[in-house]
Structures are given as structure tokens and as C-alpha cells.
Specification:
alpha/beta, binds adenosine-5'-diphosphate-glucose, globular, six-stranded parallel β-sheet, eleven-stranded mixed β-sheet
């Protein structure tokens, strides 16, 4: 990789770069900004700042040289075909993903996957250090890079490090299954600040630190003491991610999108109720449970095409992982069975679309749908739910939302469901379909207020602010670092004082300090 000498005050590290390679008509390879919330969010924080992004460009083999795109410096990290199989498809998507999502499918453990994970994390850490200016802010994203915070700290004690977890953090009883559980926790504790989607995720993390590392925690702060080193404090809080509300609302208000929404309804035969599901084809998303509930509603005669139509968009995902191939077969077999039984010529019961769509087409689908079904068995947040709300500038639509999605913790006016309870799910779908217009509008209004107030720009701002204020200040020079015990203790006193000011009754109570013990 190039010996780039440029360095930056803000460095983002994520598994993927925010661009996809595209081959032009002339055969030239170019770059196009990837769609998606994270890129939009980071764009707003990186604009006007001296920012670099470290990530994999998406193809196995040699990585391109660092380059600039849309005012961002991009530093590609190479992954060999074996590393794509072992670090990405293996350890990230077949070990960590199931463990972090309630073991909906069993996790696979392979020591050579772990070795690749460690090796790739180190490569990311080295790339981060290469482009980080003295005292830079480093923002690491997600479960693929849990070792990066400690690896960066080891190499560069001068920088400030934050990590954000886009997926849930599991209860310690599940996390403890990981043979490498201590190494993962120690990796994360290299950060100054750890952001989670829900407060429960932050609590799960802190409980794992107490139970598996024997550390102590107080409030949101973990005392990450390591023998022979100055004491460090790491804060873990909930900062739920969101969507670009204004951008989506504006897009959904364009005459083209409004027209396209009408066309979508017309092409489906102008149904009384259009129900929609939009998910990556992932076993966490509860697509099979949703289909089962819908099939039973068809059997019961509660819904029938062409008056009610269900459109399921299932985005291709991780097709080289066995559990995903199986899921696709099961979903497609079930869609075939349901249509075989309940569809007629020219009128499907379930429209199944296995494609990616541009943003404006997604906005048109959201605007066209009377009911959006978001029924994951476990989901860090679920941006689709928030995107739906942002697109409904007309105040219409109804959201059926699983209590196991992070979004439920903010969107209480949705029609809540437990996707495991098929009878309950059926009832909730019917309630959402048959609610009065006034009731649906009341709920949508409240949800739109919430997402407008807590948009993705605010999320990114809150994260950086929390990182800036995190209790263990970065050691700007190695000399300062070695004499910093007193400083960390003062920070901890400040944290305690702030907590005491917030809840005077708990100040000094013995319960407020939890002591960890080894299992
Ligand atoms: P995901 O599991 O990928 O994200 P989600 O939050 O729903 O799930 O985001 C999916 C994104 O892809 C949305 O922006 C959606 O519009 C888009 N999308 C889905 N299908 C599409 C299609 N067919 N064509 C085009 N775009 C499509 C992970 C976690 C989530 C967490 C996010 C962000 O699993 O819980 O909300 O990260 O932190």
C-alpha cells in the first residue's frame, strides 16, 4: 500500500468504504457513492473537516491506491479471497452476527476464522494510524472491527477513539459462548467512548466486562484497569442511529416520486390496502414469520387479493453463507406456495422482489404503502422503519413494528408486535389495516416528530460530542501519557459529580457502584 504522508484530524474506519466501484461504458473503473444512511450521516460530519475513511473497497485481491472522492480521502484496505471468506463471511457473519442476534441460527466457531479476524483488524488499525494526524479523532464502526480500538491505542496513544455498534450487543450468557470473548472485550476497551443503539446494549456490554473480565463499572463508565498501566475509564452509552429526515422528506415530495407511487398502486390493481416489507434477506428480519402470518390471514379469508396485496422486497444478502442460502430457499418456496394457493391470473397474493432499488424508487414504495411490516426477531435499529416515517409527508401510512427492533424504543406510536406470536402478529396487522384514518394520522404525526428531531445528523453530532467529553482524555504525547494517573482519577471524580448532580438520591449509595466478579 502506498506510503501516503497525508494525515487527517478525523478518521472513520468501517468494514466498507463509502463508495462502490463501477465500470463505465468505456471500460474505465470509477467510483460511485454507496447508498445508505451511514454514508449520508458521515458526509454531514466530514463536510468542512479534514476527514479520511479507511475501509475495504469490496473486491478481493489488491486494493486500489488511496484516492479522493467527494471531498473525502479514502484509504482502501486490501482483503485476499481467503480473508473475505474467513474474516468477513466467516468470523463476522457466521460467528459474531448470530451470537449478537440471539443465536437465531447457531454460530460457527473456527480458530482460523479468528486468526483472519485478528490479522485483518490489525491491518485496519495500521491503516488508521497511517492517516491519523497527531491527536486525531478516530471513529470505528461495527462488529467487524472490535479489536481495532485497542490496536490503535497501542500504536497511537495520542488519539481519541470511539466505536459505534450498529447491531445489538448480546446478553453475557450468549456473548460468553465466544471462545475469544476476553480478547473482544479488551479490543473494545481500547476506545474512549463506545456507542450502542439501545441502553440495554450498553448494559449488556458492561455486564460482560464485569462478569468476564472482573472489571468494575459505575453508571456508564467502565474502569478498564490493566496491570502496570495508568487507569483508564471507558464510557458506554446509547446513541440510537437515525435517517436523513429532511433529505428523505424532500425526495418523497418531488412530483416524480409522488407520480411513481401512484403508478405502483395502479400496477398492483389499486388495492384497498397495500402492505409492504423491505429487508435485507436475513434470518434476523423475521420475513418467514411475517409470511406465515400473512398466509394465515389469507387462509382465514381476512385478506384476499386483489383488495389486499403484500409486496415483499428482499434485498440479496451474504449469499455465500449457508444460513442465508437456506433462508432464501425457504422464503421463495413459501412465496410460491402462498401464490399457488391464493393468487389468480393477473393478481398475486404476495409480490416478491429480490432486487436492490435506487433511493427514489424506495421512497415511492414507502409513499405507496398503507402498512409497512417491520417484524425482525432482533435488529439493532432498523432504518427502514424510520425511512418510512420520514417519507410520509402526507401524514398517511401505518407502521407495524417488532418490539425486538431498536427502533421500537423510539417509535412507541407504531403498532407493536411480537413476531414469534403469530396469532398476535395477525391481530396487529389487522388492527393497523383497519384503524381509522384519524388514528393512523395521529400516530404517524408523533413518529414523524421524533425522527425529525432525532435525525442522522444529530446522531453523528451527539456521538462526536460524547467522544470529545469521554472521561479518559487522550494522551497527546507519550510523555503526558506516562504521568496521567491523577488526570484519569480527576476525570472519574468529574463523572461521579455529574451523575450525582443528575440523581441526588443515588449519590453515594452502595448500589451505584457495581463490583464485578469472575464467573
Ligand atoms: P441492516 O441490517 O442492513 O443494518 P437496516 O437498518 O434496515 O438494516 O438498513 C437497511 C438499509 O438498506 C436501509 O437504508 C434500506 O432502505 C436499504 N435497503 C433495504 N432494501 C433495499 C433495496 N432492495 N434496495 C435499496 N435499498 C435497500 C444494520 C443493522 C440495523 C441498523 C443499521 C444502521 O442490522 O439494525 O439499523 O445497521 O445502524
Amino acid at each position: 500500500m502506498s506510503g501516503s504522508t497525508r494525515t487527517f484530524d478525523l478518521v472513520v474506519a468501517a468494514n466498507r468504504l463509502p463508495v462502490d466501484s463501477v465500470v463505465g461504458p468505456d471500460g474505465e473503473v470509477g467510483w460511485r457513492r454507496s447508498p445508505g444512511g451511514l454514508v449520508t450521516a458521515m458526509e454531514s460530519v466530514m463536510r468542512g473537516r479534514d476527514g479520511a475513511w479507511v475501509g475495504w473497497a469490496g473486491d478481493a485481491g489488491e486494493a486500489p491506491e488511496p484516492f479522493e472522492e467527494d471531498g473525502m480521502f479514502l484509504r482502501p484496505v486490501p482483503l485476499s479471497p481467503e480473508e473475505v471468506a474467513d474474516y468477513y463471511e466467516g468470523f463476522s457473519n457466521d460467528t459474531l452476527w448470530p451470537i449478537f442476534h440471539d443465536v437465531i441460527v447457531p454460530a460457527s466457531f473456527h480458530r482460523y476464522w479468528w486468526a483472519a479476524y485478528e490479522r485483518v483488524n490489525r491491518r485496519f488499525a495500521e491503516a488508521v494510524c497511517e492517516v491519523a494526524a497527531q491527536g486525531a479523532t478516530i471513529w470505528v464502526h461495527d462488529y467487524q472491527l472490535q479489536l481495532v480500538p485497542a490496536m490503535v491505542r497501542e500504536l497511537r496513544p495520542d488519539v481519541r477513539i470511539g466505536w459505534f455498534n450498529h447491531i445489538p450487543f448480546p446478553p453475557v450468557e450468549l456473548f460468553a459462548q465466544l471462545p475469544w470473548r476476553r480478547r473482544l472485550l479488551e479490543g473494545l476497551l481500547g476506545a474512549d467512548f463506545l456507542g450502542f443503539q439501545r441502553i440495554d446494549d450498553a448494559h449488556n456490554f458492561m455486564r460482560a466486562c464485569r462478569r468476564l473480565l472482573g472489571l468494575t463499572t459505575k453508571g456508564e463508565v467502565v474502569n478498564a484497569a490493566v496491570e502496570g498501566r495508568p487507569t483508564r475509564y471507558v464510557r458506554a452509552s446509547a446513541i440510537p442511529i437515525s435517517v436523513d429526515f429532511a433529505g428523505l422528506e424532500e425526495l418523497a415530495q418531488t412530483p416524480e416520486v409522488i407520480q411513481r407511487a401512484k403508478e405502483i398502486r395502479e400496477s398492483l390493481g389499486n388495492p384497498e390496502t397495500l402492505l409492504l416489507g423491505v429487508d435485507r434477506l436475513d434470518y434476523t428480519k423475521g420475513i418467514r414469520h411475517r409470511l406465515k402470518a400473512y398466509a394465515e390471514l389469507l387462509e382465514d379469508g381476512v385478506v384476499a387479493p386483489p383488495d389486499q396485496v403484500f409486496v415483499q422486497v428482499a434485498t440479496p444478502s451474504r449469499e455465500r453463507v449457508e444460513a442465508y442460502r437456506e433462508l432464501r430457499q425457504e422464503v421463495e418456496a413459501e412465496v410460491g406456495r402462498v401464490n399457488g394457493e391464493f393468487a389468480d391470473i393477473g393478481s398475486s397474493a404476495v409480490h416478491y422482489l429480490h432486487h436492490s432499488y435506487p433511493r427514489d424508487e424506495m421512497a415511492a414504495m414507502f409513499l405507496a404503502a398503507d402498512v409497512l411490516l417491520v417484524t425482525p426477531l432482533r435488529d439493532g435499529m432498523n432504518l427502514v422503519a424510520k425511512e418510512y416515517v420520514a417519507c410520509r409527508h402526507d401524514g398517511g401510512g401505518a407502521l407495524v413494528l417488532s418490539e425486538f427492533a431498536g427502533a421500537w424504543h423510539e417509535l412507541h406510536q407504531a403498532y407493536v408486535c411480537n413476531p414469534h406470536d403469530i396469532a398476535g402478529l395477525k391481530q396487529t396487522i389487522v388492527t393497523a389495516m383497519t384503524a381509522t384514518e384519524a388514528e393512523r394520522r395521529r400516530r404517524m404525526r408523533a413518529m414523524r416528530r421524533r425522527v425529525a428531531d432525532h435525525d442522522v445528523q444529530r446522531w453523528a453530532g451527539r456521538f462526536l460530542e460524547a467522544l470529545e467529553c469521554a472521561p479518559s482524555r487522550p494522551r497527546r504525547t507519550t510523555r503526558e501519557q506516562t504521568a496521567d494517573d491523577a488526570h484519569a482519577a480527576a476525570d472519574q471524580r468529574a463523572v461521579e459529580a455529574r451523575q450525582a448532580a443528575r440523581s441526588p438520591q443515588s449519590a453515594g449509595s452502595p448500589q451505584s457502584a457495581e463490583t464485578g466478579g469472575r464467573p
